[in-house]
C-alpha cells in the first residue's frame, strides 16, 4: 500500500513526540515528581500503541487533540482542585518531610569560636585555628581536600604551636572556596564540631533538634518538644507556639468553608460575585447591541464610504488591549485626563477612580469600546447570510426598518450568535487584564478585612488573594477558582438551554 505524505508526517510527529517525552521522564524523576514521570510513561505507551497498531488508525488524528485537552485543561483544573483542599500558601510551601529536614538542619551556637586561616598544601588545604581568648589554644588540620556535596566533610583538629608552612590563601581566592568551606566540619580533640560562621571564622555549633521515634522533634537543650500539627501546618511546642517553616497538609473543605462562612471572605465574595455577574452580562449586552446596530448601518447600500467606516470602527479591536487600556486610564485621570477637562467646562469633575459607581461605569465603558468591533464583524457576516427575499417580502407588506430589524434581522442573528454571546459572557466573567490594567480592583472597600475593591471581579479578587494583599494564600485562591469554574460552567449550560442552541 502506498503511503501518503500525511502518513509520513504523522510518523515523524510521533517520533518527535516520543523523543520529547522520553527526555521529560528523567527530568520529572530528578525533580522528585515520580507520578508525573509515570504519567508521561503511560501517555507515551498509549501513543506508541495507537500509532503502531493498524486497528487504531482512525484514532491517530484524535490523540493529539485529546492529549492537548488533558495536558492544558484537565490537568490544570485537577491540580487546582487538589490544591484547594490543602493549606498551600507562602507560609506553607514545603512538604512535611522537607520542613522537618530544615528544622533538623538548624544549628545553635556553642561557647567556642576561632579565627580561621586557610593554607595551601600542594593540591590540598590546611585549616589553622586560633582562639581570641587564649593565644595558646591553636589547632591545625592535616592536609585535606575541600569537598562539596550533600555529605559534610569532617576533618580532625590537633593541637599546634605554630602556623602551617604552606602559603596562606588570599581573601579574593577565599571567596571562591566558600562552597567547600561551608561543607567542612572541623572536629576538636574533645569532640566538639566547628562550622564556618563567617568568612574567616569557625564556631562551635550543634543541631537544635533531634528526631524522636514518634516523629516529634526534641530540642538538644532538653527543654522543648515540637510536634507536627496537621491542621495548622506547623511544628508546635506544648504552649502552641508555631515554628517556621510551615508545611503543606490536607485541610479538607476548610478553604471552601472560609469562602462561604468566614466573614472576612464571605462579605466581599458575595458583593464581588454580584458585580461580576452584572459586569459580564452588561458587557455582553452592550457590545452585542452596539455591534448589531453598527452592522445594520454598515450594510445599508445607500451609505457612502462604508469601507472607510468599517475600517475605522474595527480599529479598537485591532489595537492590543494592553495598549488601549492604559490610554483610557490616562483619559479618565481625575486631575489631568482629557475627559474630566472636557466635563469641567460644564462644572463636572467626576471621581472615576475614587467613587465605586463611577469606577464601575468607567470599566463598562472601556470594555464596551474594546469589545463592540468583534460583535460588529460577526453580525455583518450573519446579516449577509440572510436571504434578500425576506426583506423584499417585508417591504411589500409595508414594514419599515424597525420592523425588519426586530422581526427578521434580530431573530435570525440571535440563534447562530448565541454560542458566541455565551463565550463573550465567560470571557468577561474572567477579564483579569481589564481590571488589572485599569483600576487594579479599586476603589477598595473600607469595611472588609480582606483587601477587595468595588471593581474587582472574582478572577482579580482571586489573584489578589493568591499573589498580592492577603498573604499569598494559593489554596484559598484555588478554592475560589474552582468555584468560579463551576459558576461559569453552570451559567454557560443555563444560557445554552435558554437560547436552545442544540435544538434544530
TrEMBL record:
Name of this protein: Maltose/maltodextrin transport system permease protein
Primary location class: membrane
TM spans (from-to): 7-29, 35-54, 61-81, 272-300, 312-332, 358-383, 474-496
PANTHER family documented for this protein: MALTOSE/MALTODEXTRIN TRANSPORT SYSTEM PERMEASE PROTEIN MALF, MALTOSE_MALTODEXTRIN TRANSPORT SYSTEM PERMEASE PROTEIN MALF
Topological relation to the membrane, as annotated: Multi-pass membrane protein
Organism: Silvimonas amylolytica
The UniProt record lists the keyword Methyltransferase: no
The keyword Amino-acid biosynthesis is annotated on this UniProt entry: no
Location relative to the cell: Cell inner membrane; Cell membrane
